[in-house]
Amino acid sequence: MHPKQVTLLFSSLLILILIATYVRTLDLPDASARIANFPQSGPGFSARRVALTEFEKDMLGEAKGYKWIYTWKGLRYAITILDGTHNRQAVHDPRYCFRGAGWTIEMDETITLAGGSARHLQLSNENGRSEAVFFYSTGERVFDAPLEYWMRATVRRWLRSKGGAEPVLVMLQALDAGIGVQHAIHEFLPMLPMP
Fold first, then answer.
1. How many CA atoms within 13 Å lie on the side-chain side of 107?
2. How far apart are CA 165 and CA 28, in angstroms?
3. Which of 63, 86, 105, 134 has its CA 20 to 30 A from that of 28?
4. How many helices (H) and strands (E) does the chain have?
5. For residue range 135-194, what is the model confidence (pLDDT) as tens digits?
6. Residues near 104 by beta carbon (within 8 Å), at least 6 away in sequence
7. What residues are paired with 112 via a beta bridge?
8. pTM here?
9. Mapping DSSP to helix (H, G, I), strand (E, B) and coil, where does residue 136 land?
C-alpha cells in the first residue's frame, strides 16, 4: 500500500469512529409512553405497582424496569417490563435470570400470541413449581428470540428514528402455587395492548 492509501484508510476509519461516537451520544426516545399506557385495570383485572429491589435497579443500570402484580379471576400474576433504550445489555434472555434465581427450566416451548410468538416456560425449585411467559414487543410486533431483540435494538441505534420502536422485554409469571399461565395466555393477555 502506498502512504497516501494508508493515510486515506486511517482517516476514513477515524471519521467513522467519530461519527459512531457522536451517534451514540444522541438520545433515543424510550418506550416509557407505551408502557405508561399499559392498562392497570380492566374487565375483571386490577394491578398494583411493585417497586424494583435495589439489586434489580443495580442490574438494570440505566435501563428502566416496571413491575406489577395483576389480579385476574382471583389469580395473581407478576408482569415485568424492561426497556433497554439506555442500557441494551440489561435486557437479555430471561432464561438466564430464572436459572440464576434458582429455578430449573423443565419445559421451554414457543407459543403463538396475537402479533407473533412468545416462550412458555415450566419452572421448578425447592419451593415448588411455576410457569412463566416472556416475549419482546415493539408495540406492534411480538417475538420470542433474544437475538432478534439484539438485532432490532442495534439497527434502531444506528438508524435512529428510522429504526422503528424500541423493543421491550415482557415477562409474565404465575405467583400462586399450582397455577399455570395457560388461561392467562389465552384470555388475560389478549385484553392487554402490547407495550
1. 11
2. 10
3. 134
4. 6, 9
5. 999 988 999 999 999 888 888 888 876 778 889 999 999 888 777 888 888 888 888 888
6. 123, 124, 125
7. 117
8. 0.82
9. strand
